[in-house]
Amino acid sequence: MKLLEIHDLKTHFFTDAGILPSVDGISFEINQGEILGVVGESGCGKSVTAMSILRIIPEPPGRIVAGRILFDGHDLVSMPIEALRKIRGRDIAMIFQEPMTSLNPVYTVGEQLREVLSLHLGLDDDAARARIVEMFSLVGISEPAMRVDAYPHQMSGGMKQRVMIAMALCCSPRLLIADEPTTALDVTVQAQILNLLVKLRDERGLGVMLITHDLGVVAETCDRVVVMYAGRVVETACVQDLFAHPSHPYTVGLLQSLPDAAKPGSRLQTIPGNVPSPLNFPTGCRFRDRCSRASSACSLEPPLHVVGDGHEVRCHHPYQGGEHEHAIA
Ligand SMILES: Nc1ncnc2c1ncn2[C@@H]1O[C@H](COP(=O)(O)OP(=O)(O)OP(=O)(O)O)[C@@H](O)[C@H]1O
Ligand code: SF4
Ligand SMILES: [Mg+2]
Prior knowledge:
Blueprint: E1 2-15, E2 18-31, E3 35-39, H1 46-53, E4 62-71, E5 74-75, H2 81-87, E6 92-95, H3 99-102, H4 109-121, H5 125-138, H6 144-147, H7 157-169, E7 175-179, H8 187-204, E8 207-211, H9 215-221, E9 224-229, E10 232-238, H10 239-244, H11 249-256, E11 304-308, E12 311-314, H12 323-328
Parallel strand pairs: 3-8, 3-9, 6-7, 7-8
Antiparallel strand pairs: 1-2, 1-4, 4-5, 9-10, 10-12, 11-12
Helix pairs in contact: 4-5, 5-7
The protein binds adenosine-5'-triphosphate (ATP), iron/sulfur cluster (SF4) and magnesium ion.
């Protein structure tokens, strides 16, 4: 079942230097019980997309200029802000990369969760405390009954991120937007938190939008993947297809820049060139300055090709059939 549908979303920033079309006509959907990975180089618009869903774009300079974001059939873009506030934190929750900046140092973590539970679910203190202890054990916080009364500074970074996840999940949201939730954490804690997301998907049917730089995380955690480049979606596929049959030259480039564990000493390739500035994106395909397959046709908008079941690519000359295997060999 579709949980969230984004249709042709455009979020632009109106700066002194000019208009930045940071998110420029993207469409994708997230199903119930699915972890959707969103990948792409720094600055491609992943966080702006996430913030647009909850309408927390700094405005000005930013503004959603077009598009619809349907949740339960209701358009979050045109919804009155009071109605959206009820959805935020209750039906759709978000966790950020930096847990340290999201918790208030003055209050115990229990007090901070209690506020959320009281606001959205109207729970009294005893019911809230029981719920918090339950959530803390769910996210793997040891001695949960004691930790409720701890202050953020008494916890490690990994523990604080678990508190943030407990806070995000305490009202049983149906959609979790996780923007690089484990980047600041060590590998062991990272694995535990990703396992927790997988468990919540399996046991509670949670839908997750997982933004990450890390294709290894995508391979192990995600069901489907959206690849973004310069404010646009260039490829969408289930995770197996994306790795086995990458079709967009940018996706192939991203995969080529992965270290190949099977081939010790194999050389790491990076995509030549730089991401263009949003102030002067090229016309047509925005990847064309860096693409070895570019032709004169690429100065026109690339068409959308369906290359497999649920596998779509926006490119004039996508890799087809087994061609990509050669490309990433
Ligand atoms: N507050 C802002 N003011 C002006 N421009 C902004 C602002 N926030 C984002 N942008 C623009 O939006 C673009 C996309 O930013 P975004 O944060 O979504 O990138 P990202 O894909 O999340 O990158 P990263 O992987 O580094 O987190 C940026 O390149 C920048 O041009
Ligand atoms: S449209 Fe052209 S330039 Fe863009 S990725 Fe495809 S082949 Fe390369
Ligand atoms: Mg970001």
